[in-house]
UniProtKB/TrEMBL annotation, chains A, B, C:
Reported cofactor(s): heme b; FAD
Source organism (scientific name): Terrapene triunguis
Domain Pyrroline-5-carboxylate reductase catalytic N-terminal: 29-116
Record-linked InterPro entries: Fe3_Rdtase_TM_dom, NAD(P)-bd_dom_sf, P5C_Rdtase_cat_N, STEAP_metalloreductase
CC per GO annotation: endosome membrane; multivesicular body; plasma membrane
Family membership: Belongs to the STEAP family.
Stated name of the protein: STEAP3 metalloreductase
GO BP term, pick one: iron ion transport
Membrane disposition: Multi-pass membrane protein
Matches recorded under Gene3D superfamilies: NAD(P)-binding Rossmann-like Domain
Principal localisation: membrane
Ferric oxidoreductase domain mapped to chain residues: 258-400
Tagged with keyword Zinc: no
Length: 487, 487, 487
């Protein structure tokens, strides 16, 4: 970004200057207690943004050199005296060491910028704890979502929100103003009781991905075991054939498409369930059960994991002819051929493979379009109809093409007795269950009678109730066009 | 996004509060007529943003539970009385049911948030129609580009523009203010006659992609037919050989590179035509014909489709050795070899393939760089020179490398009589026409004499006219550096 | 973007209108000297944003038609008289032609929008030069980072910063205000001496990529030569075998993984060096040497190039079985097999390849996750902990998996005399040096005693000094959580 480091928000500053009655934020004196990394980055940014900065340290002499020269580094009590807004950049464990300052701090605004190392580590949020130690102060929680690095390098596009909460509106306004002059976007999170939530944000580790990842791992494990038994264990036990070399590549490559395919159908299953739910209760005003709500919200992650598995399956498949085992098998087949003097060409096998390879590539191409439009910067440039066309319509076509890929891969093997190892059917037959249910349900919901009923429900119509006491014109109440987005 | 749901724009609210003479937006009472999805989401968002909300419903009792408790749900006439700004969240078909309210609504601002289900469904925009029904009201069009979901979940990065149009500046200002306090970015679209355009926006389905996609499909169809005749029909008719198994994979894989290659050259052809146009007329002030303008604007989409086809071609090619047919052919070749006792190694064939595979990978690598820098978030982080270097220079190198790939693939086959099936030349010779023209034209435009003339034209020089009555110094008028961006 | 062209920032305008004492920006008369592309685009944008525009041209009659009709096109002196803020859209070479206007321009604000064609082409920035020609004017540098195209099509998301510098605060404020009303984000770059820096920005060509790209090219060249000697030259000289066909594909494909693997380890090496540096000096307050700082800042680019090489390596590898040479070798092997009547199956070779292919795919999968999260729009949606988990933890796992891939690829060949061609060890043994060092160092730093010492240093502890004169509680000074981000 051009001029990242030196970027000072002209607008913010100007606004302040032009409204002198507002106690202009820039030019204001701001205090910082503490001299760690965060304190230093904060001081640097505040100085850049035109504030007077007073740093209160236990050891002002030693620390002075670490702060920008425009900041005044002095004793804690001295710093606290000089300003009304004080950033407390001290670990929670050491809040109590500030208690000597209780008198000097009385009536001032304390900004708690601390984070914890674990989610919900303490019963009480750090900010609440600080407030309980200094009842005469107004504690504002904020700035903790920023890293010292972001503070120093200046706000970039996107990640520049500063979540703020406080019980006092005026104090919140002042701190929000400071954040804005520093180039960040203050976001009001309400009263100080939200501090706990704000403190947990920087500790979150991809929470939306947890369930989908475990789901994918679970499916992988199940299908891997199943395929291992059929492809490796069965020939070893029944025919004493050593097929253990299949463990790293071939068994994985039979497992990945199962996972990808089932996961893809799990993206469209909750929409089908939601529609059935609405049809059954004859209303859209009844809340979905929680598990369905959760599921609907995780569809994007499940879809992306499905694409990831499908892409890995493609790479594994492409690697197959590169391997030694493939080479040796080919040579041995050629040698056998020479001995038997027959022609190696089974027309049916050729067709089967040409077709399923072809469907596989198509499905992968469609899924990659879905994955690309899931990127935030592309999703933001689409209107709702475009997004829904790609994610819902193209996605469903991808599911259908995947089903054709699976069916042509399977061909007639589901009806071949030899394919039932230990009475276990080929794994592709198992994977077909959920997707086919989804596809059939979708077709069912598109039958004219059902489709119309569903549309009426989504436009606000209700079973029973409606007929009795509302006017027909009431259906005219405007409902946004995305009614079909959940299906 | 952290705190998405609860995000209230502090800045907006503060600005309002500090300018009390402005009739502060937040805290203002806002009315909503209607009780559908959109009305509910709108009410929720307005309440979050600090507005007093009055909902007018035909059936207040039944609907009250569906709205946030802070919103007052009452009869339509009652709601209309209580406020000056009223959102009309009712389908166009039911506007006339509001006619009872004509007197109460007189002099108020009506915000039309409706959408249509088809582009240009009605002659008159919904907003114009509403204005004709309520001539005593000021109608503002706006908020229709938002989905109910966006309204409820709060504005995210990017997709938060609210397009507004109105004949009355003051009414437009007030509604823009409300949008801004709600966290959206109001965009002034001028007078109410723009309402039609605004109403069409949510109905657009990737308009910029339509022509490029049809172009790609058209090219695919032509080349597929051509290749089908040469590769499948010819051996069947002339030699009674059954090559129909080539339909799903091999014919597709000969077609895709043709499409990708021609499309890539079509990205650079309009620039060449534009330069010829400028050279011919000796001025840059003459507008390009419309078709050329359109073409220049679709280059990005054509380029991305070219990359998509190239990527599919790569995947298809990589699948070739995985197929049964390949396996059978190999074995049969080995068996034949054994019978004939010769050595299978044609040095020329080996070299041809090593080189064209190598060029193919290079071209794909370059195209993938182009595709990545087309992502909005990356394109935005590049300055003009960087963007032009990648898209124009690297892109042209990709075209040259693709040409080398095609030429080495073809080798001497263009001069081999046996390759002319039904007198049809190999398809690669056909695809070479446009790209080679583009490359030669580019080289021609870089000849010193032509290049200088072109540069002078792009700096404002004009044939004939200029010499006569302008001072030489007039060429000093500053022209931005991107003069070559169109070529 | 909806309504891009017509987008007028309502907010900006309103703000101006509501503070009439501020000399409202919109509605203000703005002058432009020059009639090139940039002048025209600027005029168009200013008119759209509600400004009165006066264009001063040497030849008003001829130029009038090129400007929007709302703009007044007149003689230069006339235009200069009518306004206080004048954009100078003239090439630096022709600044001196404006000297006739010295008297009319006195006391006015001149906005220098010019760019150069080369970095640091002139000793003095264009703005400084303009200021020296017109000492009675206030020169503001700005708007040069915009292209004429951006000006005309209106600001888009992201790339809408306007860097401004000037010695006079009031003039800077006025120009910043104009930029803001036009929909851009003004960024204060300080005094006019920064003009040089601002003028260089549009000329930058991916500066952050220069060193990493040269590093990758250098490594490629070294390893290519090394592999060429071992794989092509050695068999030719020692055994008179013609292996030159390996030049385009096979030698490249042995070189790419070496580059990718070494580059990946170079991403993690500077972190290890930084930790060693901190451990050695026992403090984190000592600045890293410049080369280390530079290196730490280029890790992202080095990592992405590593991924690019790894992806190319994957494509090359997948192409191997597709080639003629592979086909001929297979057939010949089959023929040889038939003659010798043995079974082609070396269990160890099969296992080696299955395992290293498997590790290779895993490493590529992990690296692709890293590459995706490097996209700006995704990186911005992650908090620091998530970003560090993916880039640091997953990245290190990718390094370990790559090492396993390399080791299983190598198998026992490092101990096989025949592999030492011209006494040169196999290239994979060379590539293992840096990565293994990094992995061992990482393990070493995770030994409890070392880890604890490192953590204490990163929390502010210092060797020697600390023990003597600071209180234990001083360690409580708040340090941001990202202390481990550099390792």
């Amino acid at each position: 970004m051009p001029g990242g480091d030196m970027a000072k928000p002209l607008l913010g500053r100007r606004n302040m200057e032009s409204n002198p009655d507002l106690a202009p934020a820039a030019g204001r004196t701001v205090g910082i207690l503490g001299s760690g990394d965060f304190a230093r980055s904060l001081a640097t940014r505040l100085v850049y943004s035109g504030f007077q900065v007073v740093v209160g340290s236990r050891n002002p002499k030693r620390c002075a050199g670490l702060f920008p020269s425009a900041a005044e580094v002095t004793a804690q009590a001295d710093a606290a005296k000089k300003t009304d807004v004080i950033f407390v950049a001290v670990f929670r464990e050491h809040y109590s060491t500030l208690c000597d300052l209780t008198d000097v701090l009385a009536g001032k605004i304390l900004v708690d910028v601390s984070n914890n190392t674990e989610i919900n580590h303490h019963k009480e949020s750090n900010a609440k704890y600080l407030a309980s130690l200094f009842p005469a102060c107004t504690v504002v929680k904020g700035f903790n979502v920023l890293s010292a690095w972001t503070l120093q390098s200046g706000p970039r596009d996107g990640n520049k929100q500063v979540l703020i909460c406080c019980d006092n509106q005026e104090a919140k306004r002042i701190v929000a103003e400071i954040a804005q002059v520093m180039g960040f976007t203050p976001v009001d999170m309400g009263s100080l009781s939200s501090a706990c939530e704000i403190e947990n944000i920087p500790l979150r580790l991809l929470p939306a991905w947890k369930i989908p990842v475990f789901l994918a791992l679970g499916l992988f494990l199940c299908f891997y075991t199943y395929n291992f038994i059929r492809q490796v264990l069965h020939p070893y036990i029944r025919e004493q054939k050593n097929k253990f070399y299949k463990i790293p590549v071939e068994v994985v490559n039979s497992t990945l498409p199962c996972v990808a395919y089932v996961m893809l159908s799990l993206v469209y299953l909750p929409g089908v369930l939601a529609a059935s739910f609405q049809l059954h209760y004859g209303t859209k005003y009844r809340r979905f059960p929680d598990w369905l709500d959760q599921w609907l919200q995780h569809r994007k992650q499940i879809g992306l994991l499905s694409f990831f598995c499908a892409a890995l399956h493609a790479v594994y498949s492409l690697c197959l002819p590169m391997r030694r085992s493939h080479r040796y098998q080919l040579i041995n087949a050629a040698v056998k051929q020479v001995m038997e003097k027959t022609d190696a060409w089974i027309e049916e096998e050729v067709w089967r493979m040409e077709i399923y390879v072809s469907f596989g590539i198509m499905a992968l191409g469609l899924l990659s379009l879905l994955a690309i439009t899931s990127l935030p910067s592309i999703a933001n440039s689409l209107n709702w109809r475009e997004f829904s066309f790609i994610q819902s319509t193209l996605g469903f076509i991808a599911l259908v093409v995947s089903t054709l890929h699976t069916l042509t891969f399977g061909w007639t093997r589901a009806f071949d007795e030899n394919q039932y190892k230990f009475y276990l059917p080929p794994s592709y037959t198992l994977t077909l269950l959920v997707p086919c249910t989804v596809i059939l349900a979708k077709i069912f919901f598109h039958l004219p009678c059902i489709h119309q009923r569903l549309r009426r429900i989504r436009n606000g119509w209700e079973k029973g109730r409606y007929v009795k006491f509302t006017l027909p014109s009431a259906t005219g109440e405007y409902s946004s066009g995305e009614s079909s987005s959940n299906v």
